[in-house]
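Pilot study result, target chain (115 residues):
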Amino acid sequence: MMKPASLSASVLGLAAALLAAPAVARADMPTFEVVAENDRFTPETIEVPANTRFRLQLTNRNVGPEEFETSTPFKELVVGPGVTRSTIFPPLKPGSYPFFGEFHPDTAKGRFVAK
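Predicted structure:
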């Protein structure tokens, strides 16, 4: 029979392992950086691995806010001037996925190409 102290240590060890696993997975996740500047996104084309979750990190160097948006998959990310934020994308099938800036739709455009 397991003693209460051993049981507590085992439960705590299991809980720590379960909590650490997502952090390790996030650290290994591919990350792609995009800069919003002069009402445009740079780079405009981002090649991402197909069928793999990835992180988008957006830095806004515009004078005002920018809203990064995709319709497939649906994602929105509002970023204030001088701020960097990130969001996680689900695995994408091979193909091209456009994105745009909600506040500058005529100039802030780009696409993910999943290969």
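One observation from the pilot: Residues 25 and 53 are 10 Å apart (CA to CA). A full batch analysis is planned for the follow-on phase.
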